[in-house]
Amino acid sequence: MGSTVPLNRIGDMHQAEGDNNAALNAYQQALAIRQQLADSDPNIVEWQTDLVASYYRLADLQPEQANTYMRQSLTILKKLQQEGKLSHYWEQWVDITEERLLE
Questions:
Q1: Which of 43, 46, 73, 94 could pair with 55 as two cysteines, CB 3.0-4.6 Å apart?
Q2: Within a 10 A sphere around the Cβ of 53, how many other Cβ atoms?
């Protein structure tokens, strides 16, 4: 995950500067890495929740695909919730994600 944090910060910087294309590129690179990590070991909760964080960033930049990203996030969160693996922090994101899907 270490390499995804700088990519997200770069994306955040680009987004703050109004360069959404560069931000999107950085976020998509981070997502690809996070997806590989999550697929390599689905039992590592942090890698699964990192995916959720990536989906949220992408949903903000691509509102036309936001519902898809939110459904993907909710699938991950609900699975972890059913397994009793979510921290209190991430438990809150289940409701937040469900509400965002209703918008």
A1: 73
A2: 18
pTM of the predicted structure, to 2 decimals: 0.89
Q: Which two tokens stand for residue 21?
A: 């294309």
* Sequence-ordered alpha helix ranges (H) in the chain: 4-16, 20-40, 45-61, 66-82, 88-102
Return the residue matching tokens 């697929």. 39
Segments making up each domain of the chain, as ranges: 4-102
Q: Answer for the pair 55, 49: CB distance below 8 angstroms, yes or no.
A: no
Quote the mean pLDDT of the chain: 93
Query: Using CA atoms, how far apart are residues 88 and 71, in angstroms rounded to an integer?
Result: 20
67: CB partners within 8 A, 6+ apart: 101
